[in-house]
Amino acid sequence: EPEVTQTPSHQVTQMGQEVILRCVPISNHLYFYWYRQILGQKVEFLVSFYNNEISEKSEIFDDQFSVERPDGSNFTLKIRSTKLEDSAMYFCASSENPPLGVAGGTYNEQFFGPGTRLTVL
Amino acid sequence: QKEVEQNSGPLSVPEGAIASLNCTYSDRVSQSFFWYRQYSGKSPELIMSIYSNGDKEDGRFTAQLNKASQYVSLLIRDSQPSDSATYLCAVKRTGGFKTIFGAGTRLFVKA
Questions:
Q1: Is the pLDDT of residue B13 over 90?
Q2: Which of A1, A23, A42, A56 to mutate to probe the B interface, most B CBs <10 Å?
Q3: Number of CB pairs < 8 Å for A and B?
Q4: Chain B residues inside the 8 Å CB shell of A105
Q5: Looking at residue B98, what DSSP letter applies?
Q6: Does the structure show a pLDDT above 80 at B10?
Q7: Which position among A23, A32, A109, B36 has the lowest Cβ density within 10 Å, counted as fewest Cβ atoms?
């Protein structure tokens, strides 16, 4: 069964360093997402991406974050200058269709990758 | 007011019983509703999605939606110890890509 993959599984970095988290979405999916989950807290939406553009982002997704689809398979999240509070699990997700209310929209079921645990020291 | 509220639990049920998990949401324009299961240290796994008022059944799982009451529930029949996990309710508004998650309900199924 197709699945979302993420690398690395665990990333340790020093405060102020840049990190790039990588994701390979399910191959026929066109809509991509990043979420984060701080330990013991709820899953939080960061950003959605379609057709090489951000379609929606949360207030968490500030100027230190960026996303890119550098080729036909990878989807990346870059954190420019990491802070201690960026330590979290970062999940990539993908969906085949847009959400209801968007042209062509339907169920928009999102499938999550296994996550990257980011530890900022 | 929290956007998506769930009882944090833990909810403990004996093996074979029905587990009932509840969720309320605040945004009336919410249109799509999802239940995810998350084992400790793992990623959310989609169990059910529901969009229309009423019940939707898939195997041992039944999702129930009442938009007038802004209430979503998940019933797990014949609960198994392997169902022990945190169950996340998630909501998406019409035309929005952002999915809002509740904090989750921890379920323990005792053998």
A1: yes
A2: A42
A3: 75
A4: 95
A5: -
A6: yes
A7: A109
Place of tokens 């405060």: A15
Q: Place B54 in a pLDDT band, splitting at 50, 70 and 90.
A: very high
Among candidates B46, B72, B75, B73, which has minimal Cα distance to B59?
B75
User: Torsion-angle region of residue A12: left (phi > 0), alpha (psi -120 to 50) or beta?
Assistant: beta
Maximum CA pair distance of chain B?
43
Q: List the one residue out of A38, A34, A44, A39 whose CA is nearest residue A4.
A: A34
Q: Looking at the complex, does the CB of residue A5 fall below 8 Å from at least one CB of chain B?
A: no
pLDDT tens figures, A20-64: 999 999 998 989 999 999 999 999 999 999 989 999 999 999 999
> Which of 65-104 (A) contact B at CB < 8 A?
89, 91, 98-102
Separation in Å, CA of A17 to nearest CA in chain B: 25
Tokens of A46: 């960061």
Q: SS3 breakdown of chain B: % helix, strand, coil, rounded to 5?
A: 5, 60, 40
Residue B72 Cα, gap to closest chain A Cα (Å) = 16
Residues 6 or more apart in contact with residue A119 via CB below 8 angstroms: A10, A11, A12, A13, A87
d(CA B71, CA B63): 11
For residue B65, what pLDDT is reported? 96
Q: Distance (Å, rounded) from C-alpha B70 to C-alpha B88?
A: 16
A3 Cβ under 8 Å from any chain B Cβ: no
Structure tokens at A115: 């996550």
